[in-house]
Design brief:
By secondary structure, the chain is of the alpha+beta class. It folds into two domains: 99 residues; 105 residues, no CATH class. The protein has eight helices and five strands; from the N terminus they run H-H-H-H-H-E-E-H-H-E-H-E-E. The radius of gyration is 20 Å and the shape is flat. InterPro entries: SCP1.201-like.
Length: 238
């Protein structure tokens, strides 16, 4: 029994390592796409450089399929590990795995990193993705990018109207963490756990800086990324 537990934990650690490798690859994929678009936009009207601009943008565009293949292999490896762990623990005793809709207190009673790794292994890998769980048992998948209903624009407008950022559009409002924080603010959830397959961004206009301003006062968003778990608490706007 003890030996099986040790093997299972070693496999979970391997899954965590694979998840940590996923984050920079996802970032590279997204940034390469952004770079290709920026090069084409910056080169508009530069007719003498059209061929060079297209060649350079094309080189960035070629990054995506290569990274996508690597992400698919990592995803398959993580799912394979999860299957092995499940089979091993099933051979001994049923694994005590937190239910998706269980209260936060019961989830965090288990080793948090292992729970995060297991949840992360179920996420799509071709785009930054996350799944959140609230205390009422609700869970949902959220992915980065603009929302058809303009949700990211409303987040941006809120930040501008409250003097949190200068009057401009920022990409951060399209991030998974920001969307979940906004939905918490709109829905009134007190606490949410979010598992994400990419590292929480940092910097002046990053999720790490802006999340406390998007969350409502007293709300708590606990983000489990491939590197660590972090807790963000809402605060009053300025």
């Amino acid at each position: 029994m003890a030996m099986l537990e040790e093997i299972a934990q070693a496999l979970r650690n391997a899954a965590d390592k694979a998840a940590a490798a996923t984050a920079p690859l996802v970032a590279a994929e997204e940034l390469a796409d952004d770079a290709a678009d920026l090069i084409r936009t910056a080169g508009e009207g530069s007719y003498g450089l059209t061929a060079e601009i297209e060649r350079t943008a094309g080189q960035f565009a070629q990054v995506k399929p290569v990274v996508a293949e690597l992400l698919e292999r990592l995803d398959a490896a993580q799912k394979g590990i999860a299957g092995i762990v499940s089979a091993l623990m099933g051979a001994a005793t049923p694994a005590k795995e937190p239910q998706a809709g269980a209260p936060a207190s019961s989830r965090t009673a288990q080793p948090e990193l292992s729970w995060g790794a297991q949840q992360r292994a179920t996420l799509p890998t071709h785009i930054t993705s996350g799944r959140y769980f609230d205390d009422d048992g609700h869970s949902d998948l959220v992915q980065s990018g603009g929302e058809p209903d303009g949700e990211h624009e409303r987040i941006n407008d809120y930040l501008i109207e409250n003097g949190i950022i200068d009057p401009k559009r920022i990409e951060t409002t399209k991030h998974v963490e920001m969307k979940v924080a906004w939905r918490m603010r709109q829905g009134g959830a007190d606490r949410v756990d979010l598992v994400i397959n990419n590292k929480v961004c940092s910097g002046v206009l990053s999720c790490a800086k802006l999340l406390p301003w998007v969350l409502g006062p007293g709300q708590v968003l606990r983000v489990h990324d491939p590197v660590r778990s972090r807790e963000f608490r809402g605060r009053d706007t300025r």
